[in-house]
UniProtKB/TrEMBL annotation:
PANTHER family listed in its UniProt record: DNA-3-METHYLADENINE GLYCOSYLASE
Domain of life according to the entry: Bacteria
UniProt-recorded name of the protein: DNA-3-methyladenine glycosylase II
Location of the HhH-GPD domain: 45-198
CDD domains (alphabetical): ENDO3c (cd00056)
Family as reported in the entry's similarity comment: Belongs to the alkylbase DNA glycosidase AlkA family.
Gene3D superfamilies per UniProt: 1.10.1670.40, Hypothetical protein, domain 2
All residue ranges annotated as the Helix-hairpin-helix DNA-binding motif class domain in the record: 122-141
Keyword Nucleus recorded: no
Catalytic activity entry: Hydrolysis of alkylated DNA, releasing 3-methyladenine, 3-methylguanine, 7-methylguanine and 7-methyladenine
UniProt keyword list: DNA damage, DNA repair
Catalytic activity, EC: 3.2.2.21
UniProt xrefs under SUPFAM superfamilies: DNA-glycosylase
Amino acid sequence: MKAYQEIIPHYQSDLILYNAILSSGLRITPSIETDIYQSLLRSIVSQQLSGKVADVIWKRFLDLFDLYPEPEKLLNNDLIELRNAGLSFNKARYLQNVAEFSLQNDLSFEKLILLSDLEIIDLLTQIKGVGKWTAQMILMFPLDRPDVFPIDDLGIQQGIKRLYQLDEEKTELKKKMIEISECWRPYRSLASKYIWKI
């Protein structure tokens, strides 16, 4: 993929976003991570939590496994011990679901980079506790796929409403978001990352 800074001029067809990026002074860089299994676990831990809280719970979780939660060890771990690390019952079960799925399916970086975005979403959402949003986060961050638009993400919705001064809600907001984002193709992932930051 092109260097992120080379992509920014592409957004000149949307001067609102383009000017916001330039005036922000932000510089986003790729964040490829080849351990997709661990990225899935971290994404589940982070769901609906602030960054600081998620970091604390993630560290407590890793401490249960000498810093790496091998699938077999995670499956053998007592749910009470996972709860004591700060995880909800559902999140603890979802983490074990990921571990079980990873033992039965190839989640290696080398395998996933051969699949399309839709194929990866279809694969990962077979795991109970992994929805489309989580799969999109895997596409956008560990895999650094260029054209993902997480339209259901609350941060993206609020960011676009603020940046474009929109009053629409729910279905009408999503329609407007799709309309706005069309000119960002094929780099909607990077546009979304800037909107989160801005």
